[in-house]
């Protein structure tokens, strides 16, 4: 897999108002994000620029990704995950680290019912007032499992902030809890809590150091003040207005202990080095999101939002992920992930463009060639800050 490039800036950089920061690229060939490029030089670029992903031969990481993906699960009856200590495959005969949970022991709001979901164009969605536009059926759960392992390899880690021993971690919008359970398996002394508007997380078998609740973070979670060491959040951009971001950050601030960290991982909807058909599709996507009051470009300003919410020691890292075969295994899988999302939101694109879904599909089909021709990519922003002591 190719050597990736990442860039970072701190709250000090942002406060300067110059919109520039250093990019440290990796030429080591290990598929990790190191502090310098092969020549040892530092590269400066403006905030809205992009850093190229240069594919190469990285069989170790590619092999690890393939192994991880081969183990991903599509049922909450079986837990399969990998960590630095090896892989674990469990069914109802669970190990000491996992426990079997009986529905009678769970709060009633964790049990799925007909009122929890609604159906649209053959897909199942949450039945709430949330603006989140993606479904929550088994097909989407499989996509989210895949996406988690792409992130894990492309970012070379699951989290960027420190977690103290015997600490507590909250996962805002945990979905099927792939990240939560992967982390819980790797960090058995840490207590993890996941919340989501859709009860699609496991309710039968999961690590002993995990708990899940069907709650809306915008309405406030049922946790007291100052009890968590870390709050983690990923890919909620498509369901958040500016006011929603403020509410989520305020809620994270409330439940964090003084000195605790809040980390957000979000992908920019914009495609770098995009061809004309790709630009057209994503412009329609932006229009569709704007019609619901959602501005996806806000991910480029997460550091400012964190600072405004009272967080200090704010940092932002950018990771450029390739789209397509030119980016080796990560690029292939990221492209697969992107097109699965586009297929899901096709009705929204058709409405925004005032054309038929068939016409949308024709444009999407043309994108396949463009991703290779233009060597397209997307930027993932990782922003984190600390609650003052």
From TrEMBL:
Disordered: annotated span: 1-113
CDD domains with a match to the protein in the record: AdoMet_MTases
Pfam families xrefs: Methyltransf_23 (PF13489)
Coiled coil (UniProt feature): none
GO biological process: methylation
UniProt KW keywords: Methyltransferase, Transferase
SUPFAM superfamilies assigned: S-adenosyl-L-methionine-dependent methyltransferases
PANTHER family for this protein: 2-METHOXY-6-POLYPRENYL-1,4-BENZOQUINOL METHYLASE, MITOCHONDRIAL, METHYLTRANSFERASE
Protein name per UniProt: S-adenosyl-L-methionine-dependent methyltransferase
Native species: Lobosporangium transversale
């Amino acid at each position: 897999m190719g050597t990736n490039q990442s860039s970072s800036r701190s709250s000090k950089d942002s406060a300067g108002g110059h919109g520039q920061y250093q990019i440290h690229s990796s030429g080591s060939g290990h598929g990790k994000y190191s502090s310098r490029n092969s020549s040892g030089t530092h590269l400066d670029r403006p905030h809205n620029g992009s850093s190229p992903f240069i594919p190469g031969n990285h069989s170790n990481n590619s092999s690890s990704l393939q192994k991880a993906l081969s183990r991903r699960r599509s049922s909450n009856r079986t837990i399969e995950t990998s960590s630095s200590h090896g892989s674990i495959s469990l069914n109802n005969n669970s190990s000491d680290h996992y426990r079997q949970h009986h529905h009678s022991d769970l709060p009633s709001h964790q049990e799925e019912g007909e009122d929890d979901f609604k159906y649209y164009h053959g897909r199942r969605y949450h039945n709430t007032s949330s603006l989140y536009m993606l479904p929550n059926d088994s097909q989407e759960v499989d996509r989210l499992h895949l996406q988690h392992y792409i992130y894990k390899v492309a970012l070379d880690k699951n989290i960027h902030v420190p977690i103290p021993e015997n600490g507590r971690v909250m996962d805002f919008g945990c979905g099927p809890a792939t990240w939560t359970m992967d982390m819980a398996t790797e960090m058995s002394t840490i207590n993890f809590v996941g919340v989501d508007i859709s009860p699609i997380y496991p309710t039968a078998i999961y690590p002993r150091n995990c708990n899940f609740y069907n709650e809306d973070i915008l309405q406030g979670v049922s946790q007291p003040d100052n009890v968590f060491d870390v709050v983690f959040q990923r890919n909620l951009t498509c369901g958040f207005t500016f006011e929603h971001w403020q509410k989520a950050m305020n809620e994270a601030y409330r439940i964090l202990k003084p000195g605790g960290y809040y980390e957000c991982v979000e992908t920019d909807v914009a495609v770098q080095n995009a061809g004309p058909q790709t630009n057209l599709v994503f412009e329609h996507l932006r229009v569709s999101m704007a019609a619901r009051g959602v501005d996806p470009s806000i991910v480029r300003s997460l550091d400012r939002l964190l600072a405004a919410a009272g967080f200090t020691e704010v940092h932002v890292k950018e990771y450029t992920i390739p789209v397509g075969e030119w980016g080796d295994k990560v690029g292939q899988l990221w492209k697969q992930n992107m097109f699965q999302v586009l297929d899901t939101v096709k009705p929204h694109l058709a409405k925004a463009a005032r054309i038929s879904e068939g016409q949308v599909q024709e444009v999407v089909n043309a994108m396949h060639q463009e991703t290779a021709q233009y060597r397209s990519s997307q930027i993932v922003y990782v922003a984190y800050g600390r609650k003052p002591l």
